[in-house]
Amino acid sequence: MTTPHFYWFAPTNGDGEFLGLQKPQREPSLEYLVEVAQATEEAGFEGILIPTGIPYLDSWMVGSAIIHNTKKIKPLVAFRPGFVAPTVAAKMSATLDQFAKGRLLVNVVTGGSQKELGQDGDFTEHGDRYARTGEFLDVITKSWAGETFSHEGKFFETKDAQLVPPLYQENRIPVYFGGSSDSAKEIAAQYSDVYLQWGEPVAQVKEQIEDVKARAEKLGRTLEFGIRLHIVVRETEEEAWQAAYHIISEIDDNVQEKMKNVFEETDSVAQKRMTEIARDTDRFDKYSWTGIGQVRKGAGTAIVGTPAQVEEALRDYMDVGITHFVLSGFPHVEEARRFGQDVLPRFEAVTV
Questions:
Q1: 63, 176, 221, 237: which is deepest, by most CB within 10 A?
Q2: Domain membership flag for residue 218
Protein backbone atom coordinates (compact mmCIF):
# COMPACT_ATOMS: atom_id res chain seq x y z
CA MET A 1 0.00 0.00 0.00
CA THR A 2 1.33 3.42 -0.96
CA THR A 3 2.39 5.52 1.99
CA PRO A 4 1.18 9.14 1.68
CA HIS A 5 3.32 11.99 2.95
CA PHE A 6 1.53 14.95 4.54
CA TYR A 7 2.95 18.46 4.92
CA TRP A 8 1.46 21.67 6.28
CA PHE A 9 2.22 25.32 5.43
CA ALA A 10 4.04 28.11 7.29
CA PRO A 11 2.03 31.36 6.81
CA THR A 12 5.05 33.68 6.60
CA ASN A 13 3.00 36.63 5.32
CA GLY A 14 0.46 36.48 8.14
CA ASP A 15 -2.49 34.34 9.13
CA GLY A 16 -6.06 34.47 10.32
CA GLU A 17 -9.55 33.17 9.68
CA PHE A 18 -10.10 35.52 6.71
CA LEU A 19 -8.30 36.00 3.39
CA GLY A 20 -8.15 39.28 1.51
CA LEU A 21 -7.69 41.70 4.41
CA GLN A 22 -5.47 44.77 4.18
CA LYS A 23 -3.59 43.54 7.24
CA PRO A 24 -3.41 39.96 8.56
CA GLN A 25 -5.13 39.17 11.83
CA ARG A 26 -2.02 37.36 13.05
CA GLU A 27 1.37 38.78 12.16
CA PRO A 28 4.09 36.31 11.06
CA SER A 29 6.21 36.75 14.16
CA LEU A 30 8.90 34.30 15.20
CA GLU A 31 6.71 33.18 18.09
CA TYR A 32 3.68 32.57 15.90
CA LEU A 33 5.53 30.67 13.17
CA VAL A 34 7.14 28.45 15.80
CA GLU A 35 3.66 27.84 17.22
CA VAL A 36 2.40 26.80 13.77
CA ALA A 37 5.36 24.47 13.28
CA GLN A 38 5.00 22.88 16.70
CA ALA A 39 1.25 22.41 16.21
CA THR A 40 1.99 20.83 12.81
CA GLU A 41 4.49 18.45 14.36
CA GLU A 42 2.15 17.52 17.20
CA ALA A 43 -0.68 16.92 14.71
CA GLY A 44 1.38 14.23 12.97
CA PHE A 45 2.50 15.93 9.76
CA GLU A 46 5.81 14.88 8.24
CA GLY A 47 6.88 18.31 7.01
CA ILE A 48 6.03 21.98 6.59
CA LEU A 49 6.41 24.12 3.46
CA ILE A 50 8.08 27.49 3.93
CA PRO A 51 7.16 29.67 0.91
CA THR A 52 9.28 32.16 -0.99
CA GLY A 53 8.46 35.43 -2.74
CA ILE A 54 7.94 39.13 -2.18
CA PRO A 55 5.10 38.87 0.41
CA TYR A 56 6.89 36.34 2.59
CA LEU A 57 9.60 36.36 5.22
CA ASP A 58 12.93 34.87 4.17
CA SER A 59 12.44 31.12 3.89
CA TRP A 60 15.97 30.12 4.99
CA MET A 61 15.75 32.10 8.21
CA VAL A 62 12.27 30.76 8.98
CA GLY A 63 13.48 27.24 8.20
CA SER A 64 16.33 27.63 10.66
CA ALA A 65 13.95 28.89 13.34
CA ILE A 66 11.65 25.93 12.81
CA ILE A 67 14.52 23.43 12.89
CA HIS A 68 15.72 24.81 16.22
CA ASN A 69 12.25 24.68 17.79
CA THR A 70 11.03 21.25 16.63
CA LYS A 71 12.29 17.68 16.86
CA LYS A 72 10.92 15.66 13.93
CA ILE A 73 9.19 17.82 11.35
CA LYS A 74 10.95 18.41 8.02
CA PRO A 75 11.11 22.00 6.78
CA LEU A 76 10.46 22.14 3.02
CA VAL A 77 12.31 25.38 2.28
CA ALA A 78 11.28 27.12 -0.94
CA PHE A 79 13.80 29.35 -2.68
CA ARG A 80 14.42 30.90 -6.10
CA PRO A 81 17.47 30.04 -8.18
CA GLY A 82 19.35 32.92 -9.75
CA PHE A 83 19.47 35.24 -6.75
CA VAL A 84 22.48 33.49 -5.24
CA ALA A 85 25.12 31.34 -6.91
CA PRO A 86 24.30 27.61 -6.80
CA THR A 87 27.48 26.92 -4.84
CA VAL A 88 26.39 29.46 -2.21
CA ALA A 89 22.91 27.88 -2.09
CA ALA A 90 24.62 24.50 -1.67
CA LYS A 91 26.52 25.79 1.37
CA MET A 92 23.40 27.40 2.87
CA SER A 93 21.39 24.21 2.46
CA ALA A 94 24.24 21.98 3.67
CA THR A 95 24.62 24.11 6.80
CA LEU A 96 20.90 23.92 7.51
CA ASP A 97 20.90 20.20 6.75
CA GLN A 98 23.67 19.71 9.33
CA PHE A 99 21.72 21.70 11.91
CA ALA A 100 18.57 19.68 11.08
CA LYS A 101 20.41 16.34 11.17
CA GLY A 102 19.02 15.45 7.76
CA ARG A 103 15.50 16.82 8.10
CA LEU A 104 15.83 19.43 5.32
CA LEU A 105 13.86 19.35 2.04
CA VAL A 106 14.01 22.06 -0.66
CA ASN A 107 11.41 23.42 -3.08
CA VAL A 108 13.04 25.14 -6.06
CA VAL A 109 10.72 27.88 -7.39
CA THR A 110 11.62 29.46 -10.73
CA GLY A 111 9.00 32.23 -10.39
CA GLY A 112 6.07 33.14 -12.61
CA SER A 113 5.59 36.90 -12.41
CA GLN A 114 8.04 39.21 -14.15
CA LYS A 115 6.71 42.11 -12.11
CA GLU A 116 7.37 40.38 -8.79
CA LEU A 117 10.75 39.08 -9.91
CA GLY A 118 11.60 42.58 -11.11
CA GLN A 119 11.04 43.86 -7.59
CA ASP A 120 14.04 41.74 -6.65
CA GLY A 121 16.02 42.96 -9.64
CA ASP A 122 15.46 39.93 -11.90
CA PHE A 123 14.19 40.75 -15.39
CA THR A 124 14.97 37.43 -17.07
CA GLU A 125 12.42 36.17 -19.60
CA HIS A 126 10.41 32.99 -18.96
CA GLY A 127 12.46 30.69 -21.20
CA ASP A 128 15.79 31.90 -19.87
CA ARG A 129 14.55 31.63 -16.28
CA TYR A 130 13.94 27.92 -16.74
CA ALA A 131 17.21 27.42 -18.58
CA ARG A 132 18.93 29.13 -15.65
CA THR A 133 17.05 26.89 -13.20
CA GLY A 134 18.23 23.79 -15.02
CA GLU A 135 21.83 24.95 -14.94
CA PHE A 136 21.48 25.94 -11.28
CA LEU A 137 20.20 22.47 -10.37
CA ASP A 138 22.99 20.84 -12.34
CA VAL A 139 25.60 22.75 -10.33
CA ILE A 140 23.96 22.41 -6.91
CA THR A 141 23.44 18.66 -7.24
CA LYS A 142 27.08 18.19 -8.25
CA SER A 143 28.08 20.25 -5.23
CA TRP A 144 25.84 18.21 -2.89
CA ALA A 145 27.42 15.02 -4.25
CA GLY A 146 30.76 16.11 -2.78
CA GLU A 147 32.54 16.47 -6.09
CA THR A 148 35.35 18.91 -6.72
CA PHE A 149 34.33 20.30 -10.08
CA SER A 150 34.45 23.21 -12.48
CA HIS A 151 31.51 24.51 -14.50
CA GLU A 152 31.24 27.02 -17.29
CA GLY A 153 27.72 27.69 -18.56
CA LYS A 154 25.49 30.45 -19.80
CA PHE A 155 24.48 31.64 -16.34
CA PHE A 156 27.04 30.28 -13.85
CA GLU A 157 30.76 29.60 -13.73
CA THR A 158 32.82 27.86 -11.03
CA LYS A 159 36.40 26.63 -10.81
CA ASP A 160 37.46 23.79 -8.51
CA ALA A 161 34.24 24.17 -6.50
CA GLN A 162 33.92 22.05 -3.36
CA LEU A 163 31.20 21.92 -0.70
CA VAL A 164 32.27 22.47 2.90
CA PRO A 165 30.57 21.41 5.12
CA PRO A 166 29.20 18.29 3.40
CA LEU A 167 25.55 17.32 3.62
CA TYR A 168 24.23 15.40 6.60
CA GLN A 169 21.98 13.48 4.21
CA GLU A 170 23.57 10.97 1.87
CA ASN A 171 24.06 12.11 -1.76
CA ARG A 172 21.59 15.00 -1.96
CA ILE A 173 18.73 16.93 -0.38
CA PRO A 174 15.36 15.93 -1.88
CA VAL A 175 14.28 18.48 -4.51
CA TYR A 176 10.61 19.43 -4.93
CA PHE A 177 9.80 21.28 -8.14
CA GLY A 178 6.70 22.48 -9.98
CA GLY A 179 5.67 24.08 -13.25
CA SER A 180 3.30 23.29 -16.10
CA SER A 181 5.24 24.57 -19.12
CA ASP A 182 7.22 22.15 -21.28
CA SER A 183 10.48 23.66 -20.09
CA ALA A 184 9.45 23.23 -16.44
CA LYS A 185 8.48 19.60 -17.00
CA GLU A 186 11.80 18.85 -18.68
CA ILE A 187 13.69 20.27 -15.70
CA ALA A 188 11.47 18.35 -13.28
CA ALA A 189 12.12 15.13 -15.18
CA GLN A 190 15.87 15.67 -15.10
CA TYR A 191 16.50 17.03 -11.61
CA SER A 192 13.53 16.80 -9.21
CA ASP A 193 12.65 14.06 -6.76
CA VAL A 194 9.03 15.19 -6.29
CA TYR A 195 7.06 16.98 -9.02
CA LEU A 196 4.50 19.32 -7.44
CA GLN A 197 1.22 20.57 -8.91
CA TRP A 198 -1.52 22.85 -7.65
CA GLY A 199 -4.99 21.44 -7.02
CA GLU A 200 -6.40 21.01 -10.50
CA PRO A 201 -9.13 18.45 -11.28
CA VAL A 202 -7.99 14.87 -10.86
CA ALA A 203 -8.10 14.17 -14.60
CA GLN A 204 -5.82 17.12 -15.37
CA VAL A 205 -3.44 16.18 -12.57
CA LYS A 206 -3.25 12.66 -14.01
CA GLU A 207 -2.41 14.03 -17.48
CA GLN A 208 0.51 16.05 -16.10
CA ILE A 209 1.77 13.13 -14.02
CA GLU A 210 1.81 10.88 -17.08
CA ASP A 211 3.57 13.58 -19.11
CA VAL A 212 6.35 14.16 -16.56
CA LYS A 213 6.66 10.44 -15.81
CA ALA A 214 7.26 9.71 -19.50
CA ARG A 215 9.89 12.47 -19.74
CA ALA A 216 11.66 11.11 -16.65
CA GLU A 217 11.61 7.53 -17.94
CA LYS A 218 13.44 8.64 -21.10
CA LEU A 219 16.21 9.88 -18.80
CA GLY A 220 16.21 6.69 -16.73
CA ARG A 221 14.70 8.44 -13.71
CA THR A 222 11.69 7.73 -11.47
CA LEU A 223 9.90 10.58 -9.70
CA GLU A 224 7.27 10.92 -7.00
CA PHE A 225 4.37 13.34 -7.32
CA GLY A 226 2.78 15.88 -5.01
CA ILE A 227 -0.05 18.37 -4.85
CA ARG A 228 -0.65 21.67 -3.04
CA LEU A 229 -4.18 22.11 -1.63
CA HIS A 230 -6.19 23.91 1.02
CA ILE A 231 -8.40 21.89 3.36
CA VAL A 232 -11.68 22.82 5.03
CA VAL A 233 -12.88 19.90 7.14
CA ARG A 234 -15.79 19.90 9.59
CA GLU A 235 -18.05 17.35 11.25
CA THR A 236 -20.89 17.91 8.77
CA GLU A 237 -20.90 18.91 5.10
CA GLU A 238 -23.01 21.98 5.83
CA GLU A 239 -20.58 23.19 8.49
CA ALA A 240 -17.67 22.65 6.12
CA TRP A 241 -19.15 24.79 3.35
CA GLN A 242 -20.12 27.50 5.82
CA ALA A 243 -16.51 27.53 7.04
CA ALA A 244 -15.22 27.70 3.46
CA TYR A 245 -17.24 30.75 2.48
CA HIS A 246 -16.41 32.34 5.82
CA ILE A 247 -12.75 32.49 4.73
CA ILE A 248 -13.56 34.86 1.84
CA SER A 249 -16.39 36.79 3.50
CA GLU A 250 -14.32 39.84 4.49
CA ILE A 251 -12.35 40.63 1.32
CA ASP A 252 -11.16 44.22 1.11
CA ASP A 253 -12.17 45.91 -2.18
CA ASN A 254 -8.66 47.26 -2.77
CA VAL A 255 -7.15 43.81 -2.24
CA GLN A 256 -9.64 42.28 -4.66
CA GLU A 257 -8.82 44.84 -7.35
CA LYS A 258 -5.09 44.38 -6.85
CA MET A 259 -5.40 40.62 -7.25
CA LYS A 260 -7.06 41.04 -10.66
CA ASN A 261 -3.88 42.74 -11.86
CA VAL A 262 -1.69 40.01 -10.36
CA PHE A 263 -3.52 37.34 -12.33
CA GLU A 264 -3.08 39.30 -15.56
CA GLU A 265 0.63 39.95 -15.03
CA THR A 266 1.78 36.35 -14.66
CA ASP A 267 3.63 34.40 -17.33
CA SER A 268 3.33 31.19 -15.32
CA VAL A 269 1.49 28.43 -17.20
CA ALA A 270 0.48 26.82 -13.89
CA GLN A 271 -0.94 30.12 -12.57
CA LYS A 272 -2.90 30.67 -15.78
CA ARG A 273 -4.37 27.17 -15.49
CA MET A 274 -5.30 27.81 -11.86
CA THR A 275 -6.86 31.18 -12.70
CA GLU A 276 -8.91 29.69 -15.53
CA ILE A 277 -10.32 27.00 -13.23
CA ALA A 278 -11.32 29.62 -10.65
CA ARG A 279 -12.99 31.76 -13.31
CA ASP A 280 -14.81 28.88 -14.97
CA THR A 281 -16.34 27.16 -11.98
CA ASP A 282 -17.00 27.39 -8.25
CA ARG A 283 -16.78 23.66 -7.61
CA PHE A 284 -15.34 20.65 -9.44
CA ASP A 285 -14.77 16.93 -8.94
CA LYS A 286 -16.47 15.66 -5.78
CA TYR A 287 -15.59 18.15 -3.05
CA SER A 288 -13.22 20.73 -4.59
CA TRP A 289 -13.83 24.49 -4.37
CA THR A 290 -12.14 27.37 -6.22
CA GLY A 291 -13.16 30.26 -3.95
CA ILE A 292 -9.69 30.81 -2.52
CA GLY A 293 -8.22 31.07 -6.02
CA GLN A 294 -10.43 34.05 -6.71
CA VAL A 295 -8.71 36.16 -4.06
CA ARG A 296 -5.10 34.94 -3.96
CA LYS A 297 -2.45 33.74 -6.38
CA GLY A 298 -0.73 30.39 -6.21
CA ALA A 299 -2.61 27.39 -4.86
CA GLY A 300 -6.27 28.34 -5.11
CA THR A 301 -8.36 25.22 -4.63
CA ALA A 302 -9.62 23.62 -1.45
CA ILE A 303 -11.13 20.27 -0.59
CA VAL A 304 -14.23 20.93 1.49
CA GLY A 305 -16.24 18.39 3.44
CA THR A 306 -16.49 15.95 6.29
CA PRO A 307 -13.46 13.88 7.34
CA ALA A 308 -14.73 10.99 5.22
CA GLN A 309 -15.25 13.24 2.19
CA VAL A 310 -11.82 14.85 2.53
CA GLU A 311 -10.26 11.40 2.78
CA GLU A 312 -12.14 10.29 -0.35
CA ALA A 313 -10.94 13.33 -2.32
CA LEU A 314 -7.32 12.83 -1.25
CA ARG A 315 -7.49 9.14 -2.17
CA ASP A 316 -8.81 10.08 -5.62
CA TYR A 317 -5.55 11.99 -6.13
CA MET A 318 -3.59 9.04 -4.75
CA ASP A 319 -5.25 6.77 -7.30
CA VAL A 320 -3.64 8.76 -10.14
CA GLY A 321 -0.18 8.82 -8.55
CA ILE A 322 -0.06 11.58 -5.91
CA THR A 323 1.80 10.56 -2.75
CA HIS A 324 2.83 13.96 -1.32
CA PHE A 325 0.17 16.36 -0.02
CA VAL A 326 1.15 19.93 0.89
CA LEU A 327 -1.87 21.30 2.73
CA SER A 328 -3.03 24.43 4.52
CA GLY A 329 -6.04 25.88 6.31
CA PHE A 330 -7.11 29.15 7.90
CA PRO A 331 -5.99 29.80 10.57
CA HIS A 332 -3.08 27.39 10.33
CA VAL A 333 -2.67 26.40 13.98
CA GLU A 334 -6.27 25.38 14.54
CA GLU A 335 -6.71 23.74 11.14
CA ALA A 336 -3.51 21.72 11.43
CA ARG A 337 -4.78 20.29 14.70
CA ARG A 338 -8.21 19.62 13.22
CA PHE A 339 -6.79 17.78 10.19
CA GLY A 340 -4.41 15.84 12.41
CA GLN A 341 -7.26 14.72 14.63
CA ASP A 342 -10.00 14.10 12.06
CA VAL A 343 -8.27 13.05 8.84
CA LEU A 344 -4.68 11.82 9.36
CA PRO A 345 -5.77 8.76 11.40
CA ARG A 346 -7.72 7.61 8.33
CA PHE A 347 -4.43 7.03 6.53
CA GLU A 348 -2.98 4.02 8.31
CA ALA A 349 0.63 4.25 7.20
CA VAL A 350 1.43 7.96 7.51
CA THR A 351 5.17 8.61 7.75
CA VAL A 352 6.02 10.82 10.74
A1: 63
A2: yes
